[in-house]
Structure formats: structure tokens, C-alpha cells
Amino acid sequence: xxxxxxxxxxxxxxxxxxxxxxxxxxxxxxxxxxxxxxxxxxxxxxxxxxxxxxxxxxxxxxxxxxxxxxxxxxxxxxxxxxxxxxxxxxxxxxxxxxxxxxxxxxxxxxxxxxxxxxxxxxxxxxxxxxxxxxxxxxxxxxxxxxxxxxxxxxxxxxxxxxxxxxxxxxxxxxxxxxxxxxxxxxxxxxxxxxxxxxxxxxxxxxxxxxxxxxxxxxxxxxxxxxxxxxxxxxxxxxxxxxxxxxxxxxxxxxxxxxxxxxxxxxxxxxxxxxxxxxxxxx
Length: 282
Hints:
Blueprint (H helix, E strand, L loop, with lengths): L1 H24 L4 H8 L8 E5 L5 H13 L5 H7 L19 E4 L9 E6 L2 H14 L7 H9 L9 H9 L2 H4 L3 E5 H6 L1 H11 L6 H10 L2 H10 L24 H4 L2 H18 L6
Parallel strand pairs: 1-2, 1-3, 3-4
């Protein structure tokens, strides 16, 4: 009886997981939903936009501490640099009373200043797989996930290349109101990259303040913050044995992807990768 009960429970959990995963990836009527989420934004607000797993969590921590002068913890960051649709009570921290709003959407209702974070797609595919496993939103092996990633089926935001192409041709980019920051540059020179972002936001900070902000939000510090963060700040049902903050490496994909997978990814995204300065190896 106990075993039968466990089997039924496993089936129920699997069904719930499948439904959550399907709802997460669904694009049915998504454009009206995204349009509604952006209501209440004004031209003074800045969008921190990216394709998932491109370094925006780290940027949110850096900007939270830089703009508030307070320690950036998961709970505080979630209330400071809010996701679009949950932004009405976001604090107005910019000199022009604007807010910094986080978004994965390939859509903007008006011409805003945009800080767009981009990362090597060879790293993104590995990181996104772990992220979705952690959240219980993907249940297949990495090989199938890799194929789904190339097809733009792993999340509701589509292909990596489509997301970038949208923002590079957006009104904000066309009007010179978009600042692009590469994750790899942020890792190589965090202080310099953060300084450029703050200049774009018309925020002046001392070198000491920037240095302290970077030190307090290193990868090691971020992992410690994750360990002490209350469980409720993360999505329900996350798997605690899979970390949210990874190692922050820029070349870890070399150990995770096969030569064939690298070749397939570079064949599909190679032109855009070269444009961004990423070296192709296949």
C-alpha cells in the first residue's frame, strides 16, 4: 500500500511539473500580457534587459548596492530592481527620478534607456539548462534541451538570436539610448564595466564606492548570499541541490558541450556571435 501511494504521488508530482513547465513556455496571448505589464513605465525609467542567464542577476546586485549604498541581499534586490509588471512600487533611484526595471521580454512599449546584457550563447545554453532544472521546469536530458534551445523552445522568450536582434533594432538602440554590456567584459573588468553603466545612467560615484560595491558582490560573496537568503525569495519548488549562483566562468561551456554541439550552435548563431566579438572554434 505504501509503495502504491508513493507511485501515485510521483505521478501527481510529475503531472504538476509538466503543467508548470508547459505554462512557463507558453506564448499564447503573450504580447497583450507583456504590453499590460509595461503600463506605468515612463521615459525616465531604465530597462535592464537580457536573454535569460546573461548576467542580469549579478548586475541587479551591483546596481542595487551602487544606487542605494546599502548591502545587496537577495531580498533587497528583489524589491529594488523589480521585474517588469511588478515595478509600480520600485524605488526611484536615478537622478531624474527614474527606476531601473528588469526584463527578459523582447518588447518595449516606449523609447527608454536600456542597459542590455549579453552573454556567449555557448555559456547561456549550459546555464539555462541548470536554471530550468533548479526550478523544476525541464525534465529531459541535456541533449534534447540543446536541440530545444536552438529552436527557441526552452522558454517563452524565443531564440537567443531573435532576442538580440530585436533589441539591436529597437527604438532605444536606434536613438542611441541603449548601452550593451557583455558578461565576459563584466567578469574581466567589473569596476570599469560598472563605471560605464553608471555613466550611462548619469550616476556619479567615487572610485572607492565602486570598488567596494564590486568587492561586496563578487562571485564568492554572491554564493554566500544565496546560502543565507530566505527560501521564500526564490521561486516555489526550486531544487536546493542545484545552485542559483554558479561559478561565473566564461569558458565553462568547453567542458559541457561536445564538438558537434558547438558546431551546431555556431552554425546557427555564428554571424551574430562574430558581430559581438566572440571567437568561433568550429
